[in-house]
Amino acid sequence: MNQHQFIIVQYNPAYGEQTVRLWRDSKERAIGQKEIHSFENHIYFLNNILSEQYQIDLALVDDKVVGMIAYNEREISQLYIHIDYQGIGIGQTLLDKVKEQSSGRLTLYTFEVNEKAQRFYEKNGFKIIGRGHENEENLPDIQYEWISKK
Q1: What CATH topology corresponds to 7-147?
Q2: Is-above-0.85 flag for pTM?
Q3: Any idea where the domains of the chain sit in the sequence?
Q4: Strand positions, DSSP E, the chain
Protein backbone atom coordinates (compact mmCIF):
# COMPACT_ATOMS: atom_id res chain seq x y z
CA MET A 1 0.00 0.00 0.00
CA ASN A 2 2.72 2.42 0.97
CA GLN A 3 4.69 3.05 -2.20
CA HIS A 4 6.75 5.74 -0.47
CA GLN A 5 9.03 5.00 2.45
CA PHE A 6 8.94 8.02 4.71
CA ILE A 7 10.72 8.79 7.95
CA ILE A 8 9.67 11.12 10.77
CA VAL A 9 12.27 13.60 12.03
CA GLN A 10 12.28 16.62 14.29
CA TYR A 11 12.06 19.93 12.48
CA ASN A 12 15.33 21.55 11.53
CA PRO A 13 15.52 25.06 9.96
CA ALA A 14 17.49 23.54 7.06
CA TYR A 15 14.06 22.28 5.94
CA GLY A 16 12.40 25.67 6.40
CA GLU A 17 11.81 26.59 2.76
CA GLN A 18 10.54 23.15 1.81
CA THR A 19 8.28 23.07 4.85
CA VAL A 20 6.76 26.47 4.13
CA ARG A 21 6.24 25.62 0.46
CA LEU A 22 4.41 22.41 1.42
CA TRP A 23 2.36 24.26 4.05
CA ARG A 24 1.30 27.01 1.62
CA ASP A 25 0.46 24.66 -1.26
CA SER A 26 -1.45 22.23 0.92
CA LYS A 27 -3.39 24.95 2.73
CA GLU A 28 -4.22 26.80 -0.48
CA ARG A 29 -5.61 23.62 -2.00
CA ALA A 30 -7.57 22.84 1.18
CA ILE A 31 -9.22 26.25 1.62
CA GLY A 32 -9.14 27.67 -1.90
CA GLN A 33 -7.40 30.91 -1.02
CA LYS A 34 -3.85 32.17 -1.26
CA GLU A 35 -1.67 32.61 1.80
CA ILE A 36 -1.85 36.19 3.06
CA HIS A 37 1.68 36.29 4.50
CA SER A 38 4.84 36.59 2.44
CA PHE A 39 7.10 33.58 2.08
CA GLU A 40 9.79 35.30 4.18
CA ASN A 41 7.34 36.09 6.99
CA HIS A 42 6.10 32.54 6.89
CA ILE A 43 9.63 31.16 7.33
CA TYR A 44 10.24 33.61 10.18
CA PHE A 45 7.00 32.45 11.83
CA LEU A 46 7.97 28.79 11.45
CA ASN A 47 11.52 29.19 12.76
CA ASN A 48 11.02 31.79 15.49
CA ILE A 49 7.44 31.57 16.75
CA LEU A 50 5.83 28.23 15.94
CA SER A 51 8.94 26.23 16.82
CA GLU A 52 9.23 28.03 20.18
CA GLN A 53 5.65 27.16 21.14
CA TYR A 54 5.30 23.70 19.63
CA GLN A 55 7.23 20.59 18.81
CA ILE A 56 7.38 20.24 15.02
CA ASP A 57 7.89 16.92 13.27
CA LEU A 58 8.45 16.42 9.57
CA ALA A 59 7.83 13.45 7.30
CA LEU A 60 10.59 12.99 4.72
CA VAL A 61 10.80 10.91 1.57
CA ASP A 62 14.38 10.89 0.24
CA ASP A 63 15.14 14.08 2.20
CA LYS A 64 12.10 15.81 0.69
CA VAL A 65 9.58 17.28 3.15
CA VAL A 66 6.21 15.62 2.52
CA GLY A 67 4.42 16.32 5.81
CA MET A 68 4.56 18.55 8.88
CA ILE A 69 2.82 18.62 12.24
CA ALA A 70 3.17 21.19 15.04
CA TYR A 71 1.86 20.12 18.44
CA ASN A 72 2.20 19.96 22.17
CA GLU A 73 0.68 17.53 24.65
CA ARG A 74 -2.70 19.32 24.54
CA GLU A 75 -3.18 20.61 21.01
CA ILE A 76 -2.29 20.31 17.37
CA SER A 77 -1.53 23.67 15.82
CA GLN A 78 -0.72 22.63 12.23
CA LEU A 79 -0.92 19.45 10.18
CA TYR A 80 -0.19 19.61 6.48
CA ILE A 81 0.69 16.91 3.96
CA HIS A 82 2.28 17.55 0.56
CA ILE A 83 -0.44 17.61 -2.09
CA ASP A 84 1.28 14.83 -4.06
CA TYR A 85 1.63 12.59 -0.99
CA GLN A 86 -1.85 12.67 0.55
CA GLY A 87 -3.79 9.51 1.30
CA ILE A 88 -0.82 7.18 1.83
CA GLY A 89 -0.69 7.23 5.63
CA ILE A 90 1.68 10.10 6.37
CA GLY A 91 -0.88 12.20 8.24
CA GLN A 92 -2.02 9.09 10.09
CA THR A 93 1.51 8.28 11.21
CA LEU A 94 2.15 11.86 12.38
CA LEU A 95 -1.18 12.00 14.22
CA ASP A 96 -0.68 8.63 15.91
CA LYS A 97 2.71 9.74 17.24
CA VAL A 98 1.19 12.94 18.66
CA LYS A 99 -1.66 10.99 20.26
CA GLU A 100 0.85 8.68 21.95
CA GLN A 101 2.74 11.52 23.63
CA SER A 102 -0.37 13.60 24.40
CA SER A 103 -1.92 14.24 27.78
CA GLY A 104 -4.80 11.98 26.69
CA ARG A 105 -6.71 14.89 25.23
CA LEU A 106 -6.00 16.93 22.09
CA THR A 107 -7.80 19.87 20.53
CA LEU A 108 -7.38 21.42 17.11
CA TYR A 109 -9.10 23.72 14.66
CA THR A 110 -9.80 23.03 11.02
CA PHE A 111 -11.51 25.15 8.38
CA GLU A 112 -15.15 24.36 7.67
CA VAL A 113 -14.39 24.32 3.93
CA ASN A 114 -11.78 21.61 4.46
CA GLU A 115 -14.04 18.56 4.40
CA LYS A 116 -11.15 16.20 3.73
CA ALA A 117 -9.53 17.21 7.03
CA GLN A 118 -12.83 16.81 8.88
CA ARG A 119 -13.28 13.26 7.57
CA PHE A 120 -9.70 12.46 8.58
CA TYR A 121 -10.09 13.78 12.12
CA GLU A 122 -13.53 12.22 12.66
CA LYS A 123 -12.21 8.85 11.45
CA ASN A 124 -9.49 9.27 14.08
CA GLY A 125 -11.90 9.77 16.95
CA PHE A 126 -12.08 13.57 17.09
CA LYS A 127 -15.46 15.12 18.00
CA ILE A 128 -16.71 18.62 17.22
CA ILE A 129 -16.75 20.80 20.34
CA GLY A 130 -17.08 24.27 18.83
CA ARG A 131 -17.58 26.33 15.70
CA GLY A 132 -16.81 29.79 14.43
CA HIS A 133 -13.37 30.56 15.84
CA GLU A 134 -11.76 33.87 14.82
CA ASN A 135 -8.94 33.41 12.35
CA GLU A 136 -7.01 35.69 10.05
CA GLU A 137 -8.42 33.98 6.96
CA ASN A 138 -11.93 35.07 8.04
CA LEU A 139 -13.22 31.59 7.33
CA PRO A 140 -15.58 29.70 9.62
CA ASP A 141 -13.84 26.88 11.39
CA ILE A 142 -14.52 23.92 13.60
CA GLN A 143 -12.87 22.99 16.88
CA TYR A 144 -12.27 19.30 17.45
CA GLU A 145 -11.31 17.34 20.52
CA TRP A 146 -9.93 13.83 20.92
CA ILE A 147 -9.98 12.03 24.26
CA SER A 148 -7.96 8.87 24.77
CA LYS A 149 -9.88 5.69 25.54
CA LYS A 150 -7.06 4.47 27.80
Answers
A1: Aminopeptidase (3.40.630)
A2: yes
A3: 7-147
A4: 7-10, 55-61, 64-71, 76-81, 105-111, 127-131, 141-147
